[in-house]
Amino acid sequence: MADIEEDRPLLAAEAGDEDSLSGGEESGRVGRPLPAICDPAHVLHRVVVLVFMCFLGFGSYFCYDNPASLQTEVLQDLNLNTAKFMQLYAWYSWPNVILCFFGGFLIDRVFGIRLGTIIFSLFVCIGQLIFATGALVNRFWLMEIGRFIFGIGGESLAVAQNTYAVNWFKGKELNLVFGLQLSMARLGSTVNMNIMGWVYSKVTLLIGAPGHTTLGCSFMIAAVTCIFSLICALVLAFLDKRAEKILQKEQGKTGEVIQLTDVKDFPLPLWIIFIICVSYYVAIFPFIGLGQVFFIEKFDFSPAEARAVNSIVYIISAPASPVLGFLVDKTGRNVIWVMCAVCTTLASHMMLAFTFWTPWIGMSLLGLSYSLLACALWPMVAFVVPEHQLGTAYGFMQSVQNLGLALIAMAAGAILDTKGYLFLQVFFCSCICIALVAVVMLYFVDYLRGGDLNRSAAARAKLLKEATSEAE
């Protein structure tokens, strides 16, 4: 944005501004105000933009877990073992080990937010179409290439989505917008988990028999959601370009300044946060990727019931994330909240591994703890590194997370093929135990350094007020 626009959200345009935002281009007459829905400074127009913004990543999140939603069918129709199946998730993560550092740079310096969003959406669409084609012709190597291309676009598209949010809603609305975007992402994953089995059954009736052709057609139908998200990217580009002309603002920037040399200056608490991030998330996403068959084999669920219980993590996360984020904002004590989330996750995995209690209980606990950890862990990065290093810190955090997910996805498939689900669950419990040990370490390291990460919200606000007074 231009300097005059940076310090206030567009939503907060004053009434006097609306006279200057007359639609000379739109109406042909200078001085005639735009209708509310067409005025970039009006809340109604912002709501329209927010709708397209939320659906921008819907297709990416919907198709990310396509393999998990049809795990049984993929294994049977393509005659795969679990290790090969989990390669589909590993190939998604591999490009993002590097792209996490350069996604913001490409948006800021090379493509711009509008063109960058369209290009990343195209990568998602093309990747899903190649993935579906590979299933259609029964060529697994082609499916892997499709997932690799899909991964190139998926994570970078999330960066672009966040940049749009900051550009349009910088100010007090931003937290709400991020919460809505996260809820829409979880909605995409939930719909995928619960609808793809039905899609596969309908395609089977049309074709006459299950098989790789049916599987490929089902994935092709799923690609429609990616095309829909691409249309949203095109509409957003048009609306943002139009707002730039009317409001005389600049294209949005990610605010990320990546300097890899900053890594050597990272403090010890940040490295512990990285360990918590990796060891926690590798016990969540690979488990969900393999969950369907687990619930069928251990709990004798039907495929539809297995998909439903496997999606409960995302269903709970959609409404819980904004609520828990608000709770953490109001109370502070981030380290304690992270510790609670890790302990609850460990209890959930142990319940699923060593008991025959209904998995709805364990998976519901997993959904709550997963949401709580995301709300409490990621903001702590901003408490331990200066602002000019935030882009590098978050990029490195996402990079090591994707590296861990790629490696553990392959390891989980191999463990399941050779040792079975019980051993795999013990492995996931071990990963959570590593996260728990790291959280305890973080608590004591932070305590010795003054307790910045575990301050209450009131204490943090008081310190901020004192710092502001001193600066003035």
Automatic annotation (TrEMBL):
MF term (GO), any: transmembrane transporter activity
Transmembrane segments: 43-64, 85-107, 113-137, 219-239, 268-288, 308-328, 335-357, 363-384, 396-416, 422-445
Alphabetized InterPro entries for the sequence: MFS (IPR011701), MFS_dom (IPR020846), MFS_trans_sf (IPR036259), MFSD1 (IPR052187)
Domain Major facilitator superfamily (MFS) profile: 43-449
Topology in the lipid bilayer: Multi-pass membrane protein
Key words, A-Z: Lysosome, Membrane, Transmembrane, Transmembrane helix, Transport
Presence of keyword Zinc: no
Subcellular location: Lysosome membrane
Domain of life: Eukaryota
Entry GO terms, CC: lysosomal membrane
Reactions catalysed, as given in the entry: L-aspartyl-L-lysine(out) = L-aspartyl-L-lysine(in); L-alanyl-L-lysine(out) = L-alanyl-L-lysine(in); L-lysyl-L-alpha-amino acid(out) = L-lysyl-L-alpha-amino acid(in); L-histidyl-L-alpha-amino acid(out) = L-histidyl-L-alpha-amino acid(in)
Quaternary structure, from the entry: Homodimer. Interacts with lysosomal protein GLMP (via lumenal domain); the interaction starts while both proteins are still in the endoplasmic reticulum and is required for stabilization of MFSD1 in lysosomes but has no direct effect on its targeting to lysosomes or transporter activity.
Family named by the database record: Belongs to the major facilitator superfamily.
Function: Lysosomal dipeptide uniporter that selectively exports lysine, arginine or histidine-containing dipeptides with a net positive charge from the lysosome lumen into the cytosol. Could play a role in a specific type of protein O-glycosylation indirectly regulating macrophages migration and tissue invasion. Also essential for liver homeostasis.
Protein's UniProt name: Lysosomal dipeptide transporter MFSD1
Species for this entry: Hippocampus comes (Tiger tail seahorse)
